[in-house]
Design a protein that fits this description.
The structure holds two protein chains of two kinds.
Chain A (H helix, E strand, L loop, with lengths): L2 H19 L1 H6 L9 E14 L4 E6 L2 E7 L7 E8 L8 H11 L10 E9 L9 E12 L2 E14 L2 E11 L9 E2 L2 E17 L4
Chain B lengths: L1 H13 L38 H11 L33 E16 L3 E19 L2 E12 L2 E5 L3 E6 L4 E8 L13 H6 L7 E9 L3 E11 H6 L7 E11 L2 E10 L8 E13 L2 E12 L6 E14 L2 E12 L7 E10 L5 E12 L5 E12 L1
Antiparallel strand pairs in B: 1-2, 1-17, 2-3, 3-4, 3-5, 5-6, 6-7, 7-8, 8-9, 9-10, 10-11, 11-12, 12-13, 13-14, 14-15, 15-16, 16-17
Classes of the chains: A alpha+beta, B mainly beta.
Chain lengths: 207, 382
């Protein structure tokens, strides 16, 4: 066989091997994903913690990142995830921050504990193309403290000149995630905390 | 002119400045730290008095300049550190009983413009406070020196039994200061003097409260001012009060209040209402603004008002700067108009050490007569 033909055969074999190798990834994402992904540019998370004696405090962070891909098969569903760095949560009180991170969220335990992640997002009513504001309920999975649970909430989406602004609110039970009941010198945090996530996302073909 | 001057003197003295200025107890300035409720740090639902273990710990770890535990170390056991009773001298010997000693050596410099100046060193407070909690029950008492002229008498101006259910319902019976408006640390603040709720105006009564994470309702009723009832001096009158607080955010609160006081041998019955708004835009800045109006049958004017604002700014950890313009006036009597400006510094260098420097400038609008008062106070909470 001429040398040139060997090159053609080897190239074909290499292409076949590459195709086989990437088949699982290809079947997992591109077949259902629209070309425009939503990329988190700026945003924040606010966790409202109610105290057992009445009143409440907020833990906040702006360390939020992630990417969501609208699917073609289900207009309201998104693949991808939004992630929050838990050791950046600030309650305004240093001792409370220490307790939150070390005793309750246990961020030092590593993978699964350093971040809270929201994925499997599905809007009850898909975002229309011809509106500037859209209010709808949603469901998603939240991975926190090494545990995954489904959450349900409400969200508002607005198209602005900066991109798509999203505000989502939901509640979760900290005991559902295996987090010890926060207690310090007779003052405690109630089991249900309210979470507000806000971020501005741009599409991946935006400048 | 002498009549006017006497009237002016009377008005300014009734503002409570010369008698005993200032009293650092409850701290609404900590709204900026997301503390909208008194009960996080104090046993009393209306604030002030004995600190809870949480309040003691907060005083050390977050409020004092140099008291906090070094970074990266575990805070000391709150039962044995410098935040504990007598710096933890007794360890855990007291068990569930919590005690506190409240001492306030003070210096007062008072100038009546055009008349003269007087200075005074005195012990504003020397109190022993105690609380015992078992389950939902709290037993609370205070015993100490009540200022009377240059001297003082032994008195217990606060003692009560309280029950707080986990569903937010609470009951309190005994001697206490009823809930009304915002209890500023300065008991001579115009809103407190107008309502007759200064440092020795506790009532005997019963209080019902309901607390949620966003609201608190406090209703109180009693036969009257405790000291008046005990002394049978004829000044007691039935009192009913209500206070409703809504936390719009963790740093924004609105407080609505109402108060009814019946007839007594000394005063006609009165009723009053007010609203106060607390707003803390940052973790170092707290503002409170309030308006109160009292209605009372009176020869000169039936309506008296107070407008008060206080801005507190934490310039450095444990160092607070305070400014508070206040005005007191009546509808039909310019004689009753008093304008006050308070400038203050609160410095908390170590746990439970509080240096309070306050300057008061009061001016009677009708005559222009004014007073200037400087208070230096060391508040030791042991």
């Amino acid at each position: 066989m001429p040398k040139q033909h060997w090159r053609i055969v080897l190239t074909l074999v290499a292409l076949c091997l590459l195709t086989v190798s990437f088949q699982p990834l290809v079947s997992a994402l591109p077949q259902t994903v629209d070309a425009q992904s939503l990329i988190v540019k700026t945003g924040g998370v606010r966790v409202r913690c109610s105290l057992t004696v009445g009143g409440s405090f907020n833990a906040t962070t702006d360390a939020i990142s992630g990417r969501l891909h609208p699917t073609q098969s289900d207009p309201g569903a998104y693949v991808g995830e939004i992630s929050v760095e838990l050791d950046t949560l600030d309650t305004g009180i240093a001792l409370r921050n220490t307790h939150l991170g070390e005793q309750y969220l246990e961020v030092m335990r590593g993978d699964g504990f350093t971040h809270a992640t929201l994925y499997n997002l599905r809007l009850d009513e898909a975002l229309p193309h011809d509106t500037t504001r859209h209010d709808t309920d949603f469901s998603a999975t939240v991975r926190l403290h090494g545990t995954e649970r489904q959450v349900n909430g409400q969200t508002t989406l607005r198209w602005t000149d900066r991109g798509l602004e999203i505000e989502a609110e939901f509640a979760l039970s900290i005991s559902d995630y295996g987090i010890a009941p926060p207690r310090y010198l007779g003052i405690g945090v109630r089991d249900e905390v309210e979470i507000t996530v806000t971020f501005t996302a741009t599409t991946d073909d935006a400048p | 002119m002498s009549v006017i001057r006497r009237t002016a003197t009377s008005m300014l003295l009734s503002a409570g400045v010369l008698a005993t200025v200032g009293s650092a107890t409850a701290e609404p300035i900590y709204l900026s730290k997301q503390y909208t409720r008194c009960t996080t740090c104090h046993y009393s639902p209306t604030g002030g008095g004995l600190l809870t273990p949480y309040g003691r710990s907060l005083s050390k770890e977050e409020l004092s300049t140099f008291g906090r535990s070094p970074a990266g170390t575990t805070p000391t056991d709150p039962g044995s550190g410098e935040e504990a009773f007598l710096n933890g001298l007794l360890g855990k010997a007291l068990g569930p009983v919590q005690l506190g000693v409240d001492l306030r050596p003070s210096h007062l410099d008072f100038t009546f413009e055009g008349v003269g100046n007087s200075q005074r060193n005195f012990l504003m407070n020397a109190d022993l406070l105690g609380a015992y909690q078992r389950g939902a029950w709290t037993f609370y008492g205070q015993m100490g020196r009540k200022l009377e002229g240059d001297g003082g008498t032994l008195n217990s101006y606060e003692h009560w039994i309280g029950y707080q259910a986990t569903n937010g319902l609470g009951v309190r019976v005994g001697r206490y200061l009823p809930a009304y408006g915002v209890r500023f640390a300065d008991h001579t603040a115009f809103n407190r003097t107008l309502m007759g709720l200064t440092q020795y105006d506790q009532i005997y009564g019963a209080e019902l409260s309901f607390t949620t994470d966003r609201t608190v309702l406090q209703l109180s009723a009693g036969p009257g001012r405790a000291d008046s009832l005990i002394d049978a001096e004829g000044g007691s009158a039935p009192l009913f009060s209500g206070r409703f607080q809504v936390d719009l955010t963790t740093r924004t609160a609105v407080v609505f209040s109402g108060l009814f006081r019946g007839d007594s041998d000394r005063e006609a019955r009165s009723h009053a209402g007010g609203v106060a708004i607390g707003f803390a835009p940052t973790t170092r800045l707290t503002t409170w603004t309030g308006w109160d109006t009292r209605f009372q049958d009176h020869v000169v004017s039936d309506r008296t008002h107070v407008f008060l604002h206080q801005t507190s700014f934490e310039a450095y950890r444990g160092l607070w700067l305070r400014i508070s313009p206040q005005i007191h006036w009546s509808d039909d009597s310019p004689l009753n108009t008093i304008r006050r400006l308070v400038l203050g510094v609160d410095f908390l260098p170590r746990t439970h050490w509080h240096v309070n420097l306050s300057y008061y400038h009061d001016r009677l609008a009708f005559t222009g007569v004014g007073t200037k008062t400087f208070l230096a106070q060391l508040h030791l909470y042991l």
